[in-house]
Design goal:
Blueprint lengths: L1 E4 L5 H20 L21 E5 L1 H8 L3 E5 L6 E6 H15 L3 E4 H6 L14 H15 L2
Parallel strand pairs: 1-2, 2-5
Antiparallel strand pairs: 3-4
Helix pairs in contact: 1-3, 2-3
Amino acid sequence: MAILDASHPVIEEFIWCKAVEEHKARALRDAGFDMGVDGRDGFSVQYQNANNSVRVTDEFMEAVLEDKNWELRAVKTGGLLRTMRARDLMRQIAQAAWECADPGLQFDTTINHWHTTPKAGRINGRTHVQNIFHLIIRHATLHL
C-alpha cells in the first residue's frame, strides 16, 4: 500500500498515477496488445498491484466542506509550496477513484483518535484491512 498525505507537494501526481496507467492499458489493449491479467504485454503497466490512499485529516475535510484553500507543504521543512482549493483536490481524488478505484482515503484524525496504544506513537500508515479488524476488535471489547 502506498499512502501520501493530502498536503504533500506531489499529491496530484500521486492521485492520478494509477488512472493514467489505466488509460495506457486500455489504449494498448485497443491496439491489440495482450493486456490480460496474465497477458505477456501487461508488465508495461505500472502500479497495477498497488493500493494507493490519500491520507486526509479532519482539517482537510472541513476545508472541503467550507470551500477553503488547502496548502501543499514541503516534506522536510514544512514550507508552503502551493495553495489550492480543497474541493479541487477532493474532486481529483473522486474522479481518479471513479476511473480506476484508487486512491482510497485514510482518515488520519480518526485513526489516531481511535488508536488503542497511543503511547506507542502516532499511526502514520494503516491498511484498510487493519482498519476493519481494529473496528471489529473495538466493537467486540465494548460489548463483552
